[in-house]
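Submission sheet (multi-component)
Chains listed below:
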Amino acid sequence: MTDALDAARWVPAEHSRAPLPSSTDVLVIGGGIAGTAMAYYLAKSGVEVTLVERGELNREASGTNSGSFHLQLAIHQLSGQGAEADRERLLGEARLSLEAYAVWQELGDELDGSLDVHQTGGWMVAETPGELQTLRDKYELEQRAGIETEVVTGAELRRRAPYLSETVIGATYCPIEGHANPLVVAPLYALRAVEHGALIRTRTEVLSIEVNRAKGRRFTVHTDAGPIDANRVVDCAGAWCGETAAMVGLRLPVRSEGLHVNVTEPRPHLLTPMVQHIGRRLTLKQTEQNTFIIGGGWPTPEAPRPRRYPTSWHSAAGSTAVAVSVVPALADVRVVRTWSGVIVFTDDFSPVVGESALVPGFHACVASTGFTFSPLLARRLAEQMISPASASPFPERYSLDRATVGTLRMEKS
Ligand SMILES: Cc1cc2nc3c(=O)[nH]c(=O)nc-3n(C[C@H](O)[C@H](O)[C@H](O)COP(=O)(O)OP(=O)(O)OC[C@H]3O[C@@H](n4cnc5c(N)ncnc54)[C@H](O)[C@@H]3O)c2cc1C
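Outcome: structure written.
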C-alpha cells in the first residue's frame, strides 16, 4: 500500500448505511469524484447536502481510471462543426486546463491528505508528418491560451527521451502534466464532506424523480431506500447521468463506453513523463511503484448491471502492442493485471455542467476527462449554487439543456 492509501480513511459504514433522511436542500446523485467533490464544496460552505450512491463510493470511473492529468489540448477531438468554432472551443478548454491544474496544485492541502499528486510532465508523440503537423497546430493554440508546451524533434528529442522508438519523429512536451492516485481522491473528498456535515448514503439507488411544481421542495427523489425531498438535485451519475436526467425529462448529449487499462510488473525506473500519442490509442506512465500503466481508450465489451464490463484480449494485446512500438524497452515486461471502467463521452466534447433552465433546480456535473476536470467543475458549480450573483457562469456550450433544446427544435420543424 502507498502512503496515500494508508493515509486515506473511508467514510465509516455506520454513517454511509444509516437511514436516508426525509428531506435535504441538495441531493447529489453519484459517489464518484464529481459527486463527492460537490458534496465537499457545498457542505464546506454550510449547505445541507445528501449524497446517494447505488453501489459503494469510487467503484466506477473515478476509481478505475488511469489518474492522468490531461492538460495538453485534445486537438484530435475536432467536432467537424467548423474550424473556427472548434478553435474557440479548444481555446476555452485550454484555459480550463490551467484552472484545473491550479486546483490540483492545492488539493492535497485543501483535503489535508496525500493524493499522490506528481507533476511529471507529459509527451504527446507523433509518428507521421501529418501527426507532427497536428502537434504544431496544437502548439500554436496552446501558446495563444497560455499553456506551456514545446515541439521537440530530431536529436533534441532523442536526447531528452531516449526511451522513445525511432519511429517517433516529434513530440510536444507539457511540463504541467502528471498524475494522482484515483483510489484516494474521491474517498478523501467524501470523508471531508462528512466532516463538514454532508450525509453520504451508499447502496441507495435513485429510481425515479418527481418534479413538484406546487409543493415546497422542488423534487421528490424515489430511491430503493425510500423517498427524499430536495430543493435541488445534482446529477453526478457519470456514465449513467443520461438515465437520471431522463427522469426529469432532459436529454443529455452523452454516450458511455467501457475502457480497458493494463498494469505491468515493476521494472527499474525508465520513464518520468507520461506518454500519449496524437494519432494512436496510447497513454503510458511509470508509477511510483515502478509499474507501467497502459491505457489510451481501448474498448471493452458491455455487460448488463450489476456485472462489471469484462476486459478483452483484443484490447489488452492492442494497447500493449502500441506501448511497445512507442517505448521498445517494454517488450519483455509482463502485464500482471487488466481492468475495465465505464466512461461518459459527450457528443460535442464539452462537459455538461450547470443548472437546467428547463427544469430549474436540476443540475449536473459531468466531464469525459473527469478525473482531471471534476475538482474544478464541482468547485465552480458549488460556488454558483451558493452565490449565483457573484460566481462566473459556465459557457453556454456546457448547458444541460443543449440536447433537449435541439430535439425540441427538430420536432417543431
Ligand atoms: C478506464 C478509464 C480511464 C480513464 N482515465 C482517465 C485519466 O487518466 N484522466 C482523466 O482525467 N480521466 C480519465 N477517465 C475519465 C474519468 O475517470 C471520469 O471522467 C470521472 O471519473 C467521472 O467521474 P464521475 O464522478 O462523474 O463518474 P463515476 O466515477 O462513474 O461516478 C458515478 C457514480 O454514480 C453512481 N450512479 C449511477 N446511477 C445512479 C443512480 N441511479 N443512483 C445512485 N447512484 C448512481 C454510479 O454507481 C457511480 O458510482 C478515465 C475513465 C475510465 C473508465
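Remark: The two ends are 59 Å apart (CA to CA).
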